[in-house]
Amino acid sequence: MPIEIKELHIKINVDEKAAATTTETSVDVAKIMRAVSESVEQAVNIEQRKKER
């Protein structure tokens, strides 16, 4: 039985104190956010292609 995802909620907790201490942490956070964004976009594209069929 196929599963339909109607909503996707992503919650991320970022410790601002740790991110403010080093620039490496902020770069890592940016990379993580970019990866999450790309993953969500890919999931949406897959669902759109399924609906087109």
Question: Can you describe this structure?
Answer:
The chain is mostly helical and 53 residues long. It has a domain at 23-52. Helices cover 68% and strands 0% of the residues. The chain has two helices and no strands. The protein has helices spanning 16-21, 23-52. It is elongated.
Provide tags for this entry.
single chain, elongated, mainly alpha, 53 residues, DUF5908, DUF5908 family protein, 2 helices
State Rg.
Answer: 16 Å
Uncertain segments of ≥5 residues (pLDDT<50)? none
How much of the polypeptide forms β-strand, as a percent range?
under 5%
Helix content: 55-70%
Mean pLDDT reading? 78
Counting DSSP E segments of at least 2 residues, the number of strands comes to 0
Shape from CA axes?
A: elongated
Structural category = mainly alpha
Gap between N and C termini: 17 Å
Q: Give a quick account of the main beta sheet: strands, pairing sense, barrel closure.
A: none
Number of helices: 2
The sequence of SSEs as H and E is: HH
In brief, what are we looking at here?
The protein has 53 residues and is mainly α.
List the topology elements:
Elements: H1 16-21, H2 23-52
